[in-house]
Design a protein that fits this description.
Layout lengths: L11 H16 L6 H8 L3 H4 L6 H25 L4 H18 L1 H9 L8 H26 L7 H13 L1 H6 L6 H16 L2
Length: 196
């Protein structure tokens, strides 16, 4: 029987999660099957259950791994001694880099989370709302300090996050600029648009 091939310092579960993220992005969580996933990693479908309990466990792990990465990062940004506009730029660059480097996982976490089962679904929704509130609070601090234009912070967060989510089309483009150029262009447009 075939075994899941792994690189050094990478577990079989991590290989399965990476393949599941790619599959869920391409087919959607609902349409993706365990048989599809088994083919991706080169094993029999039954062998997957030696490493995971279910397809829903994979979605849970992908979504919460991404949420935890963003949660830990915003903790660092919030507690730094940077000005609010600088915090916003640092946070936005992180979002862009995650969409470029960990696209499959971030995409699935952003689009397929609605298929999580409760209590995980409500927990994840709560984390998303809390994250957006914290993001908006940084913008509000910038407005109060006079560095950011007077705008509705919640609306600004939605616009910024939707713009970053649009990096999906950059991934599909056949004639695209580099990831570094994309990041600089987005920072120029989004951060300069907020600056007072």
């Amino acid at each position: 029987m075939a075994r899941i091939r792994t690189a050094k310092d990478v577990s079989r579960k991590e290989v399965i999660l990476k393949a599941a993220a790619a599959l869920f992005r391409e087919k959607g969580y609902k349409a993706a099957s365990m048989r599809d996933l088994a083919e991706r990693v080169g094993v029999e479908a039954a062998s997957l259950y030696n490493h995971i309990r279910s397809k829903s466990e994979l979605l849970h792990d992908i979504c919460f791994d991404v949420a935890n990465i963003f949660g830990e990062y915003i903790n660092q940004v919030e507690t730094s001694d940077k000005k609010p506009i600088e915090k916003l730029e640092i946070l936005l660059r992180f979002h862009i880099q995650q969409m470029i480097k960990n696209f499959q996982e971030v995409y699935v976490s952003d689009r397929e989370w609605r298929y999580l089962e409760n209590p995980y679904l409500s927990n994840f929704q709560s984390q998303r709302r809390n994250y957006r509130r914290r993001f908006a609070a940084i913008i509000e601090q910038g407005i109060e300090s006079g560095d950011i234009n007077r705008i509705d912070a919640s609306t600004a967060v939605l616009i910024v996050l939707h713009a970053v989510s649009g990096i999906e089309s950059w991934h599909r483009s056949t004639h695209k600029i580099s990831g570094e150029e994309l990041e600089e262009n987005m920072i120029t447009i989004l951060i300069d648009g907020l600056k007072k």
